[in-house]
Amino acid sequence: MRPNIFDIATKELNQDAFITWLLQFADNKYQPTDQHLNICGKTFVTELIKKQNPDFNEEITKVEAGRQWENIDVWAEVNDKYLIIIEDKTYSNQHSNQLARYKESAEKWCESNNYQIPICIYLKTGNDSQASLNNIQKQGFSIFSRLDFINVLNQFKETTNNIFSDFYERLTRIEKSNNEFENKIIKDWNGNDWQGFFQFLEKEIEIVDWGYVNNPSGGFWNAVLNWDYWDGYPAYLQTEEGKLCFKVSTDPDEVELPENMTRGEIRNQLHDLILQKANDFGFNHIRRPDRFGSGNYMTVAIVDRQNWLGADNEIINKETVIKTLTDYLNFLREIIK
Question: What would the DSSP string read from start to end of 36-67?
């Protein structure tokens, strides 16, 4: 396999450059330069617009595109009629109220220039949880996913342009790695496998959110499966890569601690309840944590990896895992209601 420029230039700015480059090729003046890239660019523009205007079928004739207007990653003016703004992400996530600001800037520009309402796109070639994507859509942005991008580029994969080929090859490789968890022994899972697993999980059962927790110990991938209440305190299940943890929140932003209760007492009460009921319900794999914490979010009981996900040298049985997690969720909800 020859060197790939996008394996070397991995930052979002380089992806911004590719997107802008492809959008510029959609203009009619570049048809004689490279017909394949011109048609691919037009297809890309059309699919972006259709994310917000599903019935769009106009011919693309004129496209001007650039980067970093009003801090917006990529913009494109199409047919002197449409403005596309793109918030482009690889592995980072949107923050603060940046999307609202970008949308407002685009709307003002469109109104001043007699354009239609802007096409606001959140383009992500990495992974986001469904909860995060739902929040982005609530802000008026449509999602253009890695798979959406691959489906466009795949129609033109025979092109001989090396820039195009390198980007397409890297994108398809990322997509492939995202699904390898299904056929890889569990002890060899890495971050890509956990992300692929969580994406599978959120399609099968309704979970709260998933993502990466960065901490002094090195960090881990986690998924919060539920957010129910026990005596006023959030009680929930969370996977922390290998462990399935029963947890309680005493975060002051979420609950107010009684003056006569400590975090440790609340933790111990829920621990005792879970361990007692585990015996009654036949959940023999629920155990005490190796050590108790006393922070805002505390683990009160644990199920080890081999007892919910599978042993180190096993390949995941997805149906069994879904049933096991559903059983534990039902158990927690039953005992705290």
Answer: HHHHHHHHHHHHHHHTT-TT--PPP--EEEEE
Query: Going along the chain, which residue ranges are E strands?
Result: 63-69, 72-78, 82-89, 119-124, 142-145, 209-213, 220-224, 228-230, 233-240, 243-249, 286-287, 297-303
Do 48 and 119 contact (CB within 8 A), yes or no? yes
Q: Which two tokens stand for residue 39?
A: 């048609």
CA dist 25 and 64 (Å) reads: 9
Residue linked to tokens 């492809």: 22
Q: What is the Cα–Cα distance from 208 to 247, expressed in whole angstroms?
A: 14
Look up residue 138 and give its amino acid: K
> How confident is the model over 81-108, as pLDDT tens digits?
999 999 999 876 666 688 999 999 999 9
CB 148 within 8 A of CB 49: no
**Other C-beta atoms within 10 Å of 321: how many?**
17
Cβ within 8 Å of residue 307, ≥6 positions away: 285
Q: Which of 64, 65, 54, 59 is nearest to 43 (CA)?
A: 59
User: Contact 103/120 with Cβ under 8 angstroms?
Assistant: yes
What tens digit of pLDDT does each residue of 311-325 get?
A: 999 999 999 999 999
Q: What CA–CA distance (Å, rounded) separates 40 from 25?
A: 8
Token pair recorded at residue 34: 């490279």
